[in-house]
Write a structure and sequence with these properties.
Elements (H helix, E strand, L loop, with lengths): L8 H4 L9 E2 L3 E4 L7 E3 L7 E5 L2 E4 L5 E10 L4 E5 L2 E3 H4 L5 E3 L22 E3 L8 E9 L7 E10 L2 E13 L3
Parallel strand pairs: 1-13, 3-13
Antiparallel strand pairs: 2-5, 4-9, 4-11, 6-10, 6-12, 7-11, 8-11, 12-13
Length: 176
């Protein structure tokens, strides 16, 4: 299952070129975000949405420490406001998407009231998943959006080596 912290790859790559992470292959993505498109057909300027990252499993022989997540391709008109991490125990399951302020939809969760666990590395042992935790991207619509957000990046450490791995995700904030 997916987890992460709020720091971005840019912060971890501010040093010399040899400090850039290696390309990783330890993680397998699962769940609806890893195979399809999450999103809405009628986004409006001012909307704030959260979309779930794929759930992650460590398929390697060594423990992984997830240090950050991010979306690589963010079109103009979309502004990423953070990468919160939630517990399925708190949210009563794996929430795929949530609109901020949406209190009229049956079964919706007010994610602004849920504890945010971003800020600590999440440990995923060999051949296990992240357990109870999953990350989301929080996006505000600030202008006309003409293409989807895509490319979930997960940054992690195994031993003393830093890795970055891209997994499939695509989020639609389509506008009429």
């Amino acid at each position: 299952m997916l987890v992460g912290v709020a720091a971005t790859l840019l912060a971890s790559c501010a040093g010399p070129a040899n400090s850039f992470p290696a390309t990783g292959h330890a993680l397998a993505a699962g769940g609806p975000p890893s195979v399809g498109i999450l999103g809405v057909p009628d986004a409006k300027i001012g909307d704030v949405w959260r979309f779930a990252f794929p759930l992650l499993t460590n398929n390697s022989k060594a423990t992984v420490w997830i240090t950050s997540v991010r979306v690589d391709d963010v079109p103009s008109g979309a502004q990423v406001e953070g990468y919160p991490v939630y517990s399925m125990k708190d949210t009563n399951g794996y929430i795929l998407d949530s609109e901020e302020g949406d209190k009229n939809v049956s079964g919706s969760r007010d994610m602004t009231k849920m504890p945010n666990y971003a800020g600590k590395p999440i440990v995923i042992r060999s051949h296990q998943d992240s357990g109870d935790y999953y990350a989301m991207v929080k996006v505000k619509v600030v202008g006309r959006i003409k293409k989807h957000l895509s490319g979930c990046r997960v940054n992690y450490t195994q031993g003393s080596t830093k890795y970055t791995q891209k997994v499939h995700c695509e989020y639609a904030l389509d506008m009429k």
